[in-house]
Structures are given as C-alpha cells and as structure tokens.
Structures
1.
Amino acid sequence: MVVRGKTLRAFAILCALGFSSLGLQMVWTEPRDLVVREVELRLPRWPRGYPPLRVAVASDLHIGSPHNGLGRLAELVRRINATRPDAVVLLGDFSPDVLGGRKIAPERWARILTGLRAREGVYAVLGNHDWYFDGPRIRAALETYGKVEVLEDASTAARRGRFPVWLAGISDFVEAEHDVAKALADVPTKVPVVAITHNPDVFPTIPPRVALTLAGHTHGGQIRLPVLGALHTASRYGQRYTKGHVTEGGRHLFVTSGVGLSALPLRLGTPPEIVILRLRAAGA
C-alpha cells in the first residue's frame, strides 16, 4: 500500500508538471515564437521556362494582440527582408480582437511596414477583423503610411518584362464582396496569376486559370492537438483548409497559420510563421 501511495503521488506530480509545461507552451513559449520556413511549390499553371518567384507570405498579424506589439512587427519586417524575397504579400487581419489585446492606431503600425523590401513590391488584402475595426482607415494607412499596394477585388502585374506574373487580390469572404471575376478581370489570359485573399473559404470558386491561391485566417487552428488536429478553424469547411498546401481538382491553395492571436491568447502545435514560397513550373 505504501508503494502504491508513492506511485500515485509521483504520477500526480508528473501530471501537474506536464499540464504546467503545456500551459506555459500555450500561453508564452509558442505565441512568442516566430518560425521562418521555406516551401517550394511546383505548379502546373506556372509556365515552363519561367524563372521561380520567391514570395514572402505573412498573415493575421493582429498587431496589438499579446506578444505582437510594434517591436514584434519590426522584427517581422527584419526577418522577411533577411530572406530577400521577390515579393511580399500580407493576407489581412492587421487589427486584433483577442483577450488581453489592445488597439494600436493603424497609422502607427503602418509606418513600420515601409521597411519591407522586395524587388517586385509589397501587396495586401484586408481581413474580417480589419473590417470590424475600420476597413477604409486600415486600407488608407497601408497605402499612405505603409507604402503597401492594397488589392481589394483588383489585380496588378507583380513582375513585368519577359516573364510577367500577376497578383489578383480577392476581398474578404465574410465581410466584403469577394468578387473573383472582378479581381481577375484585368489579368491577361496567358500569364500566371496568383490570387491573394484572407479567408480560404473562397477557394472553391477560384477558376482553374489561377496558378495558386494564398490565404490565412485559420491560424492553423491556433490550438492544434495530436490526432485530433485543430479544435477550431473559423472555416465553414472544418479542417479542409486549415493549413499548408492543398490541391483540389488540379487547383492549388496554400494557407499560412499566420503570426498573431485571435479570440484566445493561446497557441499550441501551430507556431507563428513567415512562409517563403518558391513558385516554379511543375515539370521544371
């Protein structure tokens, strides 16, 4: 009986240590982490003979959420620049809505984004939380103070010359029109086009001519458990578009787990990330 009592106490101590360690990881360690990972995507709609395009992708900055103040934003700018991307895309939700967060004037944080460096430019779309805060104000701050080109149901040539590449920005699936046809209306027919949007739920409506769709919004689930996966994805499709590279019917989607925090100031199993995508032809 004595041995059994000691065993139970030891087990209880180990459980307490495990839970406290897990809690520390969710509350402090993982939210403060910032992973930079590189992913190569070979795309059927990327023409043979085209040089690769390196695109830095960051989403859901939620500036003002715990661990994501102006200093963290400056770090993100430095780390993106260190990868020397051809282009940078920011996929919305600059504004926070999280327990323990604070609102920061968009004019303040947008000035930090002027530090981003990319030969082919810096582009953005707005997310649902940006519209909850003040969509027009955030767009104006990005364009005026951040020198970021905002593409809301609009497109632009991200790379010109012999190997043109177009970006088509599709506005938020929940809070805006998300007019895919309008976003693609000015894109020439024989050039590769990358669609950027906030919410991946728009992906089923993306036509096959789009080489790749980029999205955020899900935070990779933000709390992701072994076997069970993400507890919540904020997507009508459940875990179908939670994170990473998805292919459906020959079309390609990449969903980043983002940088900041929403609703609860916790992360587990899906650390904040900057993704550097290297886009190239499938048969290259």
2.
Amino acid sequence: MPSPVPYRTLRELVQNALLEDILHHRFQPGQRLIEGDLATLYGVSRAPVREAVRALEEQGLLRSVSNKGIVVSHLSPGEIREVYEIRGELEPLATRLAVPRLDDRRLDELERLLRRMDDVLDEPKEWLALNNTFHLMLYQPSGRHRLCGLIAELTNVVELYIRLFLNEPGMLPGIHREHYEILASARRRDAEECADLVRRHLEDSAETIASLAEKAGEA
C-alpha cells in the first residue's frame, strides 16, 4: 500500500514554490519582491504569500530593507563564513547523536544514495539535491527534529553560493569522495570520527564558497 501524501498548507506550498524560484535564480539576490505580484504568480491570495515571505525571512533567504521592502538576500563572504561556522557546530553534533542509532538498513540506504550521486557528477544541480538528502538522512536518526530543521534551513540559506562552488572545474569529485569516508566511519559506529569528518567536510567547502561569492560580487 503506497504511503499517504503528506498534507501541506497553502502557506507551505507557496513557501516551497518561492524557495525553488529563489534557488533556481528566477529571483536574483537583491531583487525586490512585491506581495501582490507573488500572489498573482502563484495563484493565491496575499495571506499565504505574506506568511511564506515571513518564514523565508526568518530563514535568512529574504530580508526587509528600508524604503525598498522585501528583497532576496545577498550574503557577504563574511555572512557565508558565519553560516558555515554555525553548521560546523550543529552538523557534527547531529552526527554524534545519530551514528550510534544508525541501523544497517539506513546505512545501506545512504550507500545507495552515494551510488546515485556517482552517476550525476556531471549534473551539479541533481548532485546537490542528492547531497542534501544524504546529509539529512545521516542526521535524522539523532531524533533531534529541531536540530535537523535548523541544519536544513542553514543549508538553504547558502545553496545559491554552493552552486557556484559546484560549477568550478574539478571541485565536485573531490568533495564527493569525502562522503564515502563519512559513510565508512558511520559503518564502524565511530561517532566521534564521523563527526570530525563531517566538520572537515564543511570546512573544506566554506572558504572556497566564500571566495567564489566574493569574486561573483566583483564581476
């Protein structure tokens, strides 16, 4: 029997649609968003749009600017580094809590996911979606739903800039190999080593992504 489709409120549907449009550059960093235009675009009233905008503003993807209204956030290199500093504390914590609770079924699912990622190394957007799934699948057995939610929100905040990193020649295979090291330590149930690998995995990306964002801003 198929699993039931999770119910989503109108606000959630609008929020997801707006998030996708931001991540896929339909709306550019710094662009002003007008509530009425968004309501027309998504075919809804202004109320769910207002709620969706507020939720994305709380996540840092949108921000309110004096005399301009709501705009798509543009993170400075320093802000990107700050997001990664926070992720560098939260994700190892989630890993340490999750690894002792990983069963063989979950580990096999993670390995299958990595094999799928092997097949899309030349498709950065597809690889990135699978990458995000891999990390959250690793953290979820921690049982800390709020922690996993914060990690997902922070990942969304920097995803525009992660895409710059993935488009750099030769970057993707190297960062992908680190996932196999993380999985191997998880299979050994070595929570501390796995957490340390996750932290280094984030550190390896952070400075490069911040530097690329800086160059993109100068272009």
3.
Amino acid sequence: MSQEKPLKEKIVDWLGSQGYPLEMKVASKLRNSGFKVQHGSYYVDPETSKSREIDIICTKGDTVYGMVEIHFVIECKSTKRPWLLFSAEYTREGLSPLRAMAIRSEKAGEFITDNAQNLYNAFTWVTKLGRVGYSITQAFSERQDTPYEAILSAVKASVSLNIKNENQGVWKIPFLFAFPVIITASPLFECYLDENGNVNIQEIDEGLLYYDGKIDNYSGFCIRVVSESALETFKDDINTTSGYLIDLLKEDIETEWVNWQQRVNGTDVA
C-alpha cells in the first residue's frame, strides 16, 4: 500500500503544475540581466474593464530623461502536454511586419515607420521571414484553452499598458513599446506542410504567432512563444533589442525632452 505524499511535496507538485517555478525563474533571470521586473502585475482588461493579472512585465528605458519604456509582457505557462504551433509561409501575406512589431504609443509608431530599414536590418524577427504561426494548441487534449488564454492575457496586458500611458496626458511616456510574450515549460513543436504537402512536425525553441484578433482599437499582433530551454537566448535577445532601440532613439529622446519641458512649463500641473 503506497503512502500518501507529505503536504509539502503536494504543494511543490501543485506549484509546478501552475507554472509558479517557471515564473520565478524567468523573473530572476531577467532581473539579473538589468531589467526592471514586476511580478503579478494587474491591468484593466480593455474589453471587460475588469482587473486581471499578468505574470511578468520586464522593462528597460532611457535612464536619463525617462522618455522611453520598452516592455516585454510575459505570460508563463507550465502544462504536462506539449504545445503545437501551426505555421505557414503564407501567414505573412497581408501582414505588415512593422505594424505587428509591437503595441506602441503614437510617437513610437512614427519612430518605427521612420526607421523601418534600420529595424529590418537589425532584427530578423521583425522581418518575419519564413514560416509564421497562425494557430497554437495543446497536444493530446480536446481543449485549446491554455494557449489561447495565454495569448489573450499577453496581448491584452500589452494593450492595457499603452492605453494607460495614453491617458496620462502631459505625463505620458512618448516612446512606449510593449511586446507580448509567452514562455512555456512544455515542449514546443512546430507543425507545417512541406512543399510536397506532407505534414512535418519538429521541436523548436521558439516561434512567432500571428493573432489577427481585435482588442479595443488595436488589431494584428505577433506574439513570441518561447520554450523554457531557450530562456537564456531570449534574455540576451531582448537585452540587445532594448539597447538598440534606445540607442536609435537618442536624438528623438533629446528632442522630446525639450518638448516635454515646454508642455509642462506651459501647463498648470499642480
């Protein structure tokens, strides 16, 4: 007769099934890499106006003027079953890579347009060459709720950050970028048809998923789906991304700082 597990072991098992160890690991790694990390942040759902929770928001910005905030909005999921990303090259048809680059403020959008070629050359995931995911599911399960809920959570939290910023009036951050990300402890596989029409399945470290839904006035999102095994690479990549964007924004930051001072000095902010 097998003995029942001690309560402590049961709690450890439950924590693992809920993804908390993964969330703690991700947060620790990003914080040690120099990001400001917020655990369990709450945001206002843009569709229901209800308060909801996102696992991690990690942020970098310019440390001198505070004119830039680059957020990576992360939902962590740990399930027993593998995840399957369905992809195709035709997903890119009609997809504007720069428009889907990130949820962003108005001035950040203008910056992306003005620096299109630089961004194309710097980030392969911006150009979105090759296959891009159009759907994701959890294998060996009739329910698709976990991946879909993760998508909605990461996207809605990103949109909410931008809406909140836009509502700040004179105090809003001019250049805000929010990148939705899902990190999963489950094995991640890609499923696609080859040139002969055969189904191919291969394990991947990460992939891009295009979600053509509409949240508030925003639509067309690319979500980065990353396996736990690729966490180190992901950390290095977003560090490079943040640094490059801030460096590219240097002149815009200084210009906007002058404009911001003029607006504040000409406004009763008491």
